[in-house]
Specification:
Length: about 290
């Protein structure tokens, strides 16, 4: 669950519209009467997994609360070329001001959801679950992670504030795993008892160190850049004492080999940064 999703979404919508509209949509202001009403349809031009319909409705309602929004398809559904995702009826100024924002968001989200589903489908029948990462577009993480969820993935921490992840640089700066975990645990007890701690390991020796000092403190052990055989060895060594996550270079060709190793989670940054936007268009419906 993304924390405070609706408030974050409306902040994103307002910032994006300010960026695009500025002091006025002069292309519309110059030739369309302010009271003109119209209808438009979201047309699908590329197959994949649809994502962003809920967001599109919220964008239009943000600008025009009385908008008539009729869905033909829902987030997470397969979409085919030639289908319509939704129709919207409201002021023409609202349609034209929101058009590009809606398209940019839905095209990007649908691309991420489509790629995520390809990964998630490969994990069918396994206990292993698919995680995203913080390798996201600045100020657009909210909807990139929502697209991962729609595509069948699981959201990892949203940011630096909702989980402690002791990665290689934290550990090196702190002077080692033992020092980093000890300080993190003291911090959690003093300031945020709800924070969970994850520790990145780079070798089986690191895993053994966490096994020694982590029980009761550490929730999850990340196995970073481990090969599948090493992941299996680490998972067997941990024996369920901690959640396990494999990370680093995992792709569509290798993900099943990590699932075969028995790891609880695999995290794939490419769900977001390697996804390609899908082609959609918003077209005016002219009633004659």
């Amino acid at each position: 669950m993304i924390p405070d999703f609706d408030n974050r979404l409306y902040q994103l919508i307002e910032a994006a519209l300010r960026e695009d509209v500025g002091d006025g949509d002069h292309s519309t202001l110059c030739c369309i009467p302010a009271d003109a009403r119209g209808k438009a349809v979201l047309k699908i031009k590329q197959a994949g997994v649809l994502a962003g319909v809920d967001v599109a409705e919220k964008i239009f309602r943000h600008q025009s609360p009385n908008v008539v929004f009729h869905r033909h398809k829902a987030d997470g559904e397969a979409m085919a070329v030639g289908e319509a995702a939704f129709e919207v009826e409201t002021g023409v100024h609202t349609i034209l001001q929101c058009e590009r924002l809606v398209l940019n968001i839905m095209q990007r989200m649908s691309g991420i959801a489509t790629l995520t589903k390809q990964y998630a489908d490969l994990l069918q029948g396994y206990k292993t679950r698919l995680l995203d990462t913080r390798k996201t577009t600045p100020n657009f993480r909210l909807l990139e992670k929502e697209a991962v969820r729609i595509g069948g993935g699981v959201n990892h921490r949203f940011g630096l504030f909702d989980m402690i992840m002791l990665k290689d640089n934290h550990i090196d700066y702190a002077g080692g795993i033992e020092a980093a975990v000890s300080r993190a645990w003291d911090y959690v007890q003093a300031y945020r008892p709800d924070l969970k701690i994850e520790v990145e390991t780079r070798s089986l020796d690191d895993v053994k160190t966490v096994m020694k000092i982590g029980p009761g403190k550490v929730l999850r052990v990340m196995l970073d850049n481990f090969q599948p055989a090493q992941v299996k060895e680490a998972v067997d060594l941990i024996g369920g004492a901690f959640e396990t996550e494999a990370s680093g270079g995992i792709d569509l060709e290798t993900i099943r080999s990590y699932a075969d190793a028995g790891v609880d989670y695999v995290s794939v940054g490419g769900l977001i940064h390697q996804a390609r936007s899908l082609d959609l268009s918003l077209k005016a419906v002219i009633v004659k």
